[in-house]
Write a structure and sequence with these properties.
Blueprint lengths: L1 H27 L9 H9 L13 E14 L3 E5 L4 E4 L11 E4 L5 E5 L1 E15 L1 H6 L4 H15 L5 E10 L16
Antiparallel strand pairs: 1-6, 2-5, 3-4, 6-7
């Protein structure tokens, strides 16, 4: 019985020791259980004691992701556009005149090009290492910081932008043509 109790005690100590070791390793590798906002991190850099620390944070990294949805030209489409033709006739002579008459004449459909677009999503992701000095000097939000970072990356390296189609399309080929004046032939 004493041997069994001793073995159980030893196993319990081993399990508890392993959990404590794993927890301390997680905190050493930067996995803190404390969650801070960007403004809190600025405050922690300026006044570490406020967050129960003796020194300011280090190894600070800001992760940024930017998604932009845009429409880009696709293959041009063809649209059939109605045409119309009105011919007016009047007869005149030195002695006579007739009232002008008008009548529509058959015409061909006009084929013309029309724009079609596909939607693409452009994504840029980056992680930027910063110091406390950079964070405290920055005047803006974390969104502003990431927008500035991504804009710089887009300008400096077009290969950083990953683009793919979303599957949405827009065609301006199907629009009906309306007559603002009303029906044709009515004045």
């Amino acid at each position: 019985m004493k041997t069994t109790l001793a073995i159980l005690s030893l196993c319990a100590c081993f399990v508890l020791g392993s959990l404590a070791h794993a927890q301390s390793n997680g905190q050493k590798s930067g996995q803190s259980s404390q969650v801070l906002t960007f403004d809190d991190l600025k405050s922690a850099c300026e006044n570490p004691a406020r967050f129960h620390n003796q020194i300011a944070p280090s190894n600070i990294q800001i992760s940024c992701q930017d998604l932009q949805y845009k429409w880009v030209p696709d293959n041009e489409g063809i649209v059939n556009m109605p045409t119309s033709r009105m011919v007016t006739s009047a007869v005149y002579s030195d002695k006579y005149s007739s009232t002008p008459i008008s009548a529509p004449v058959m015409t061909e459909i006009q084929k013309t090009g029309c724009p079609q677009f596909v939607e693409v999503v452009e994504s840029v992701e980056t992680v930027r290492a910063v110091s406390c000095d950079e964070i405290t000097a920055y005047k803006g939000t974390s969104i502003d910081f990431c927008a500035d970072t991504v804009n710089s990356l887009r300008a400096a390296n077009f290969n950083a932008v990953n683009s793919k189609q979303t599957g949405r399309v827009m065609s301006l080929c199907g629009s009906a043509i309306g007559d603002k004046r009303g029906q044709r032939g009515q004045n």
